[in-house]
């Protein structure tokens, strides 16, 4: 059923890499920037496109699917079986999480092959931050799914959450280029913390425990809230 949704396939799997390709084709994005610590803008935007795939998957793609099941009575019929809400949410989170991780790998591959972006130097730390960021995005999407009664409501709520999360991920301005006060606020949000954790791992350092802790905390709170407020109909 997921493969039959060309919109979801494009926005999750293709759009982040397409955005990276468009930005990387701008000459100024391939020049070193002093305010970014000597790296190029295209280097800074690889983690951003990685996070964008998670935002698209967890917040934009998954909630309308689950709320669509609720509208069509599919969840009501499931409620008469041994299936629990955690299983329904878990299956959708696993599917969309796998798609987001696949998109992240595609962005890393294109960044390296086309724009000579260095691969993460701390690969294990990068993988940990990547998995935690994906879990946070999906947990947020699960909460939107639990609270929204219809697909239209899920799309509206998802859109309202989407743009602040994109900003905190650094889509319009990389986190390391933000003013100190704004950066501190952003780093308390899941995607701001994820952006910093990915940048640290890419530079060869283990992601900061504070940033990883923020991701774990957000994931735990959002998941618990989604399971608590999930309704079959």
UniProtKB/TrEMBL annotation:
Keywords: Antibiotic resistance, Cell membrane, Membrane, Transmembrane, Transmembrane helix, Transport. It holds the Pfam family ABC2_membrane_3. Its main location: membrane. The chain crosses the membrane at residues 44-66, 87-111, 123-146, 153-173, 210-230. Residues 7-233 form the ABC transmembrane type-2 domain. The keyword Transmembrane helix applies. The keyword S-adenosyl-L-methionine does not apply. One of its GO terms (molecular function) is ABC-type transporter activity. It is a multi-pass membrane protein. It comes from the Bacteria. InterPro entries: ABC-2_transporter, ABC2_TM, ABC2_TM_bact-type, ABC_2_transport. GO terms for biological process: response to antibiotic. GO terms for cellular component: ATP-binding cassette (ABC) transporter complex. It is found in: Cell membrane; Membrane. Belongs to the ABC-2 integral membrane protein family. This is Transport permease protein.
């Amino acid at each position: 059923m997921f493969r039959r949704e060309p919109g979801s396939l494009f926005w999750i799997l293709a759009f982040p890499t397409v955005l990276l390709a468009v930005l990387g084709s701008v000459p100024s994005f391939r020049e070193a920037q002093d305010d970014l610590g000597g790296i190029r803008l295209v280097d800074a935007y690889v983690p951003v496109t990685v996070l964008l795939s998670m935002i698209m998957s967890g917040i934009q793609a998954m909630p309308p699917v689950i709320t669509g099941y609720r509208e069509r009575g599919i969840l009501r019929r499931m409620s008469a079986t041994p299936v629990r809400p955690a299983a329904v949410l878990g299956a959708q989170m696993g599917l969309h999480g796998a798609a987001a991780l696949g998109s992240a790998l595609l962005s890393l591959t294109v960044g390296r092959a086309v724009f000579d972006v260095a691969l993460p130097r701390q690969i294990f730390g990068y993988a940990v931050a990547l998995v935690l960021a994906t879990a946070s995005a999906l947990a947020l999407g699960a909460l939107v799914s639990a609270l929204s009664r219809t697909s239209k409501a899920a799309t509206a709520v998802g859109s309202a959450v989407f743009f602040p999360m994109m900003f905190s991920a650094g889509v319009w301005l990389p986190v390391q280029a933000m003013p100190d006060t704004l950066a501190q606020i952003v780093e308390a949000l899941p995607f701001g913390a994820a952006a910093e954790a990915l940048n640290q791992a890419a530079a060869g350092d283990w992601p900061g425990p504070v940033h990883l802790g923020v991701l774990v905390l957000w994931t735990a709170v959002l998941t618990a809230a989604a399971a608590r407020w999930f309704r079959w109909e």
